[in-house]
Design brief:
Elements lengths: L1 E3 L2 E7 L2 E6 L1 H19 L10 H11 L10 E2 L2 E2 L1 H13 L7 H4 L4 E3 L9 E4 L8 E7 L2 E6 L2 E6 L3 H6 E6 L3
Antiparallel strand pairs: 1-2, 2-3, 4-5, 6-11, 7-8, 7-11, 8-9, 9-10
């Protein structure tokens, strides 16, 4: 057996040797390993909690593909305001009025540049008054119940850009 740095080397014969670490080095290595193990167990790299707006946006996206139905308020068929009413009720337990025009009267007005996921975006698709609502999901997109069902729409399309009426924040 011979000492070489922090290692104790024991000759086993035929060119083989067993290497062991001195006690103090071993204890330091063990303590470092335990600290790494416990830091991951207790989630020191915890993720930030979802905001209510993010919960709304996330729930809305789960309903993509649901069919359109005039007057519809369930996943069996939605119209625009029935969709937003349903999503807010199920995702954050918030009650919205039934029509898009009445929903437009609720919440805090938000500038286009300040939109956050979960905000309601309103359109005058009839050319006169608020007649459509969707849920903003980020990147200039919203989820809404169109005549072709619940879909993601780009706010940059001419149709939506030309009929944009405003946005409201219902939850933070």
């Amino acid at each position: 057996m011979r000492l070489q740095g922090n290692l104790i080397i024991e000759e086993l014969g035929i060119g083989m040797a067993a290497v062991s670490v001195r006690k103090t080095s071993f204890i330091l290595a063990l303590a470092a390993a335990m600290a790494m193990l416990f830091s991951s167990l207790f989630g020191l790299q915890a993720e930030a909690a979802q905001t209510n707006g993010q919960k709304v946006a996330s729930y809305a996206q789960k309903l993509i593909g649901s069919p359109y139905k005039y007057g519809g308020t369930t996943p069996k068929g939605f119209d625009a305001s029935g969709f937003t009413q349903y999503v807010y009720a199920k995702s954050v337990n918030a009650k919205l009025p039934r029509t898009s025009a009445d929903q437009f009267k609720k919440g805090k007005s938000v500038q286009l540049k300040d939109l956050k996921p979960g905000d309601l975006v309103f359109y005058k698709t009839n050319g006169k008054s608020v007649s459509f609502v969707g849920i903003y999901i980020g990147k200039q997109q919203f989820v809404g119940a169109t005549s072709k069902g619940v879909r993601v729409q780009s706010m940059n399309l001419a149709y939506w850009k030309n009929s944009y009426a405003g946005a409201k924040r219902i939850v933070n």
